[in-house]
Specification:
- The chain is of the alpha+beta class and 205 residues long.
- It contains 4 helices and 11 strands.
- The strands form 2 sheets. Strands 1-9-6-11-4-3-2 form a 7-stranded antiparallel sheet, with helices on one face.
- Helix 1 packs across helix 3.
- It is globular and about 60 Å long.
């Protein structure tokens, strides 16, 4: 994606597309990750984030000041995340994978009637989510079109707006942290659990 090869005449050239990565843990890897995360998650306390209001999803304690994965030694999850991140960097033509740190990681609990307002994590480089428990109908993650600010232009307006991401146990998604996203309301009786995280790259390494 870093270099552009122009397509034949009379076709569309999609310049500077927003790279959203998704993968799914399967088989033994999926089973090990699920057991690891569910074991630790069952012991957590959840609460409302201060100032977010009563309808926003609940978070594990100190969500942005701690790292759930490091603190609980979630090695299987970290291995899967690392492999996916390296593949993501390969797709965007990163010459040498830089050193990185998962600067925050937390668990989100979304019960019936809860959702997440549109927001971004622009203070990081890459953000992501891994779905631990979902019935596939309890509220999709929605990505905003990065060109929404140009919607007054006829062509950009034709490209559409919010796009839903895949939703299912074992799905992991990665995206540039400044991409606005939200989560639709959970209208089911299922308690959705997901792992969210932010990643920063070492600019010196």
């Amino acid at each position: 994606m870093g270099s552009t090869e122009w397509r034949p005449e009379g076709t569309i050239q999609p310049l500077w597309a927003t790279p959203i990565y998704h993968n799914k843990a399967r088989g033994k890897e999926f089973d090990e990750i699920q057991e690891e995360l569910k074991t630790v998650t069952s012991k957590l306390k959840f609460g409302e984030a201060e100032g977010w209001g009563p309808h926003v999803h609940d978070l594990s304690e100190k969500p942005f000041d701690s790292n759930f994965l490091y603190d609980n030694k979630c090695t299987k999850t970290l291995e899967f995340l690392h492999r996916c991140l390296m593949e993501y960097l390969m797709f965007v033509n990163s010459k040498e994978p830089p050193k990185y740190i998962i600067n925050s990681a937390w668990i989100t609990r979304t019960i019936k009637g809860k959702f997440a307002y549109p927001h971004s994590h622009g203070f990081s480089d890459v953000s992501g989510v891994y779905y631990i428990n979902t019935n596939g109908e309890d509220g999709n993650l929605m990505f905003d079109n990065m060109n929404d600010a140009l919607g007054g232009n006829f062509i950009y307006n034709c490209l559409g707006g919010k796009t839903p991401a895949p939703l299912g146990d074992g799905f992991l998604l990665l995206w540039p942290s400044n991409v606005r996203h939200e989560t639709q309301e959970n209208t089911t009786d299922n308690e959705r659990l997901s792992l969210s995280f932010n990643i920063n790259f070492d600019r010196m390494g």
